[in-house]
């Protein structure tokens, strides 16, 4: 991320989402959350894709507390999860 900040092109929401999703796919949720925090500290507001990605991979990794907290945070920011996202959360609780 530091290299991107030094380049003349600053990362946007799409770039951050791709990086977050890449770390999630690699199973490195800790790094995905680090990038998410950097994204927020840069003044960006997460969009539905970022929330969906993080919730999906937290559920996949059986990190339902994190998925639930992310879902709650998304609703506080006026993004409400899709039926598929809610299904993943419920499936994890069963």
From TrEMBL:
PROSITE patterns on file: PPR (PS51375)
Keyword terms: Repeat
Claim: Repeat is one of the keywords in the record: yes
Pfam families on file: PPR_2
Record-linked InterPro entries: PPR-containing_protein (IPR050667), PPR_rpt (IPR002885), TPR-like_helical_dom_sf (IPR011990)
PPR repeat start and end residues: 12-46
Protein family (similarity comment): Belongs to the PPR family. P subfamily.
Name used for this protein in its record: Uncharacterized protein
Biological source species: Salvia splendens
